[in-house]
Design goal:
two-stranded antiparallel sheet; Isopropylmalate Dehydrogenase; 11 helices; single chain; 40% helix; binds nicotinamide-adenine-dinucleotide; alpha/beta
Length: 336
């Protein structure tokens, strides 16, 4: 069995509670993981003067894989978003957010199986902003050819690898003719390299409507950063909400797996929130590490718990605690 060394960042708020569950579930899956625990976030600011000490980045660079809890971005204290900085520093250019219907989760849709591939390094989300006097502020939307081609190619490669039925590019090039126009031009060019995979385009506002009307019509969606931020939460809402939405940030040198949701500060320390987004991020990580058997084992445990519906957290209509839901998943994994 291959031993993997993985950086583990517990995170802020509810992060330590949900990532601890993910770790226990991964341990029960049989995968051989040696965790290197590094702290980041609010708790380390007094010691390091920053929520993202250099040793965190060094650890991820060394191990090339990390499992991370959410990190709070301190408001109005001069810090850039820790998550944006981490993605930029490590060149994690692809943000991958699967949204898949799971049995037992009550939602309006049953057959959703989407993957949002979000460009992770530029667009308005890069936060290049300045004041124009006291009463106006300006934000720069930077879109480049290399980053656009890279993310679309990533989406097509993923579609090919996973046998997906089509790739949809999302844009607003009818209005932002230069920036989104460039993204679209790149998407069309890269699509020609993949004649075996159907390709289509949607304007972002129409895409939002279509996703709530008929999400089963879509498969891999690729888009610039800000649209991806918004539509991936919409897609999480199609399949049960933020408590069940996993994510991956992938680059050529490293990959960081984390729930889509944030640190949910109002629930900190209450052992209450859903650990599934963290557990499913662990499943994505195991597949990335070629540990398909361990990943499948966890999925069988998760599906069993959700199907029975007795030991789920409040957001899924239950009363189980974070820990209790984690234990139930492990029990089901062992029951096979
Ligand atoms: P949030 O995702 O933390 O929480 C919003 C609400 O979603 C919660 O109040 C709760 O009702 C629900 N929710 C979130 N996670 C849940 C779970 N596991 N189970 C059940 N319900 C859940 O969003 P926010 O309050 O806007 O952000 C809080 C902090 O998190 C901010 O500082 C933000 O910058 C940060 N954040 C970090 C990340 C990250 O680390 N990747 C992502 C998003 C937000």
């Amino acid at each position: 069995m291959t031993r993997h060394r993985v950086t583990f960042i517990p995170g802020d708020g509810v992060g330590p509670e949900i990532t601890a569950v993910a770790r226990r579930v991964i341990a029960a899956s049989g995968a051989d993981i040696e965790w290197e625990v590094v702290e980041a976030g609010e708790a380390v600011i007094p010691d390091y003067g920053t929520p993202l000490p250099g040793r965190v980045l060094e650890s991820i660079r060394r191990n090339r894989v990390a499992l991370k809890g959410p990190l709070t971005t301190p408001v109005g204290r001069g810090f850039r978003s820790v998550n944006v900085t981490l993605r930029q520093e490590l060149g994690l250019y692809a943000n991958v957010r699967p949204a898949r219907s799971l049995p037992g989760i009550r939602s309006r849709y049953e057959d959703v199986d989407l993957i949002v591939v979000r460009e992770n390094t530029e667009d308005l989300y890069a936060g290049i902003e300045h004041w124009c006097g006291r009463d106006a502020a300006e934000s720069i939307k930077l879109i480049t050819r290399p980053a656009s081609e890279r993310i679309v190619r990533f989406a097509f490669e993923l579609a090919r690898r996973e046998g997906r039925k089509k790739v949809t590019a999302v844009h607003k090039a009818n209005i932002m003719k230069y920036t989104d126009g460039l993204f679209l031009e790149c998407a069309r060019k890269v699509a020609e390299e993949y004649p075996d995979i159907p390709y289509e385009e949607w304007i972002v506002d129409a895409m939002a409507m279509k996703l709530v009307q008929a999400p089963e019509n879509f498969d891999v969606l690729v888009m610039p950063n800000l649209y991806g931020d918004i539509l991936s939460d919409l897609c999480a809402g199609l399949v049960g909400g933020l408590g069940v939405a996993p994510g991956a940030n992938i680059g050529d040198e490293a990959a960081v797996f984390e729930p889509v949701h944030g640190s949910a500060p109002k629930y900190t320390g209450q052992n209450k929130v859903n650990p599934l987004a963290a557990v499913l991020s662990g499943v994505l990580m195991l597949r990335h590490l070629d540990e398909a058997g361990a990943a499948d084992r966890i999925m069988r445990g998760v599906v069993a718990v959700l199907t029975k519906g007795e030991t789920v957290t409040y957001d899924l209509g239950g009363t189980a605690s974070t820990d209790r839901m984690g234990e139930a998943i492990i029990t089901e994994m062992k029951a096979e």
